[in-house]
Amino acid sequence: MNEPTAVKIVHEALLTKPDFPEFKAGDTIVVTYRIREGDKTREQDFRGDVIQIKGHGLTRTFTVRKISHGVGVERIFAFSNPNIAAIKVLKRGRVRRARLYYLRNLVGKKARIKELKVFGPSNAKGATEE
Q: What is the pLDDT along the chain (130 residues), one digit of tens a residue?
C-alpha cells in the first residue's frame, strides 16, 4: 500500500465519523459502548458528568465521571473510537470551568452540578404569545 492511498483512507475515515451531539464540561451524558466478549457483542451504558474535553482531531477525548456504590469512577473515551454506539445528552450543566477536577474532592450534594436552563423562543423572557 503506497502512502497516498493510506492518506486517502484516513481522510475518508475522518469524513465518515459518527455524528455525536454537542456537549461540554458539566453536562450529564450517557455513552453507549459496544463490548466484544469472544464472538458475542453487547452494549453497555456509562452515565455520568463530563469533567473534561481534551485534544484536537483524531486524538480528541472526553472524560466522564460517575459515582458507583460510593466510589468515584472515571472513564476516558476517544471521539474517534468506533466502539461508541451512541451518546445521549441528558442534562446541560452550568459551570464556569472547562476542567472540573474539583469534583473529585466533593461528596454528596456539594458534588452536584447546577442545571443550565435553556429558554426556547416561546418561553424566553420578553417573548409575546401569538
A: 566 777 777 666 665 566 889 999 999 999 999 999 999 999 999 999 999 999 988 889 999 999 999 899 999 999 988 899 999 999 999 999 999 999 999 988 888 899 988 777 655 555 554 4
What is this structure's pTM?
0.76
The set of residues, in sequence order, having a beta carbon less than 8 Å from that of 49 and lying 6+ positions away, is 26, 27, 28, 29, 64, 65, 66, 93, 100, 103, 113
Alpha carbons 78 and 83: distance in angstroms, whole number: 10
What is the layout of strands, in order, in the sheet containing 71-78? 71-78, 61-68, 40-54, 28-37, 84-91
Start-to-end C-alpha separation, the chain? 63
Q: Is residue 89 within 8 Å of residue 21, measured between CB atoms?
A: yes
β-sheet bridge partners, residue 76: 63
